[in-house]
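Running this now, will post back.
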Amino acid sequence: MEIYPVINRCQGLDSGLYHYQPLSHNLHLIADWNPDVEALIFDAWKSTGQQDIPQVILIVTARFGRLFWKYHSIGYGLILKHIGVLYQTFYLVATAMQLAPTAIGGGNSEQFCQVAALNEYEESSVGEFSLGSIKQINNWVHPIFENS
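Update: finished.
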């Protein structure tokens, strides 16, 4: 699995498409903010029901050859299980950091591969995850809990 953050608005980072480098624990800029990167944000916004424009999207990719050479027919199932474990970790960490996490059930892997200059048959997006700041609403109680 590889992680490609798409930054729309994030303090301390310029907008654009990055690749997370796990060994050095840093981000490598792949593409500055441009209409193609903006289209990735717009596509995620449409996939979330057009609530709020995502501040950060984490696009998760799989390098298919790494799993399929050994696991053949169950490789894709393993990728999906790994996505589930990664999403759970994203949710736990984001919640602990008081961020607003959301798994996204859609995405345009062909468009992402074009922007990131990837061969979609070797490495392609298999999941997207949105992060943002939590909106603070003072003294607001959800109607379901008013009588509790």
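The chain has a mean pLDDT of 85. More later if anyone needs it.
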